[in-house]
């Protein structure tokens, strides 16, 4: 099982010209097949099977196990604990002001006390149901039958002990996306879905986003490569952790094909029944239509160019979801592309400046040490020259990336850099440090998940492998005025 990874500037000239044309035109179309930096897709990259890496190709055997969440459900709702969290969409936060506006110190309300969430899975349908675009007042429920059904699909849910139903027709692929509106903030909403006589039977619930700046807990992972043997245990462990939100930082699949998304979403099924997941584009998604069809991005139509990058506000955290290509173009030509201009504006927005913590998620890392063949790749120079300085200037706490298949952490210019690509792809190995590499630099090459606790007084980052071994724990105190 050999996969080749290259930097973005390793593209052929025709591919580079195509990328520049796409950026100039506002992004690829919904069905564009564009490959950006990183691994050449590998059909065998899904099931690593050798525990000890070698110098040629580091593989590993997944022995996922199953974590017991030991959940203690909410007395009013046996499916979701009372303190399980949600997320907050920028649509429910005041708009973007002029650059440099002072909004005062970010508020923070309450303690971080996550509770375990049930991890049972419902396999009635091929995909889902899973929750997307969760806001303080609504959410979208997505599911897809094994074969299209020419009937309306409905979500049955309960608010304050009052039953309600929302329905919609399937799209051309047979997928249902039903939006629920008028919901109370920070509240557990039990639900089920049905198409004709076919309906889910497993109790499920999600929690609407908070309308206050309360602390939240995040699951962060990357490079799942549709490996259900790793994604499944990560899902179960995250539910045991009581996470509010999940983020996939790219390369959820190895090829942007429907069956690979089916497998990836199946591995994440128990988690996505209950917790909203935001997906960042990686090079293996290749801007393919199947990625954009799978996820409902806050505030973006399925074919909008900005669906490649977007921002989300959840409680006391603001998150920017990015894609690398525009930064490469900006560095190459010395001009700000649309995404770079957008990010500068977003980091000065009220949603970002009133959040206690500002986090960025981008598939490619500014710096990385490990790599499959130690061929000289150590991250993206464009991100080192553009993104990290911008993050430091605007008070970003951390940048999370994948692409390198392992765990690494360091700090540059006061910004914590985390590489968390241990979600299922063949594991990388440690390579010699080049001159000028940031130190100290934590590293471990194992399948793992990262849990981020965004509290009022500190933000903690914890990495654990599939056996619950603690790989790393890092705490960042909150400094007033940042």
3D structure, described in words:
The protein is an alpha+beta fold. The protein has a single domain, classed as Metallo-dependent phosphatases (Purple Acid Phosphatase, chain A, domain 2, 4-Layer Sandwich), CATH 3.60.21.10. The chain contains 9 helices and 23 strands. The strands form 5 sheets. The chain has a 7-stranded mixed β-sheet. A hairpin with a 4-residue loop joins β22 and β23. α2 (228-241) packs parallel to α3 (258-267) and α6 packs across α9. The chain starts with a strand and ends in a 5-residue tail after the last strand.
Write a short abstract of this structure.
The chain is an alpha+beta fold and 482 residues long. It has helices spanning 13-24, 228-241, 258-267, 269-272, 289-294, 325-333, 338-347, 350-353, 381-393, and strands at 5-6, 38-39, 127-132, 139-144, 153-159, 162-168, 176-180, 188-195, 198-199, 204-207, 216-221, 245-248, 277-279, 310-314, 317-322, 357-362, 398-401, 407-412, 415-420, 442-444, 448-454, 458-465, 470-477.
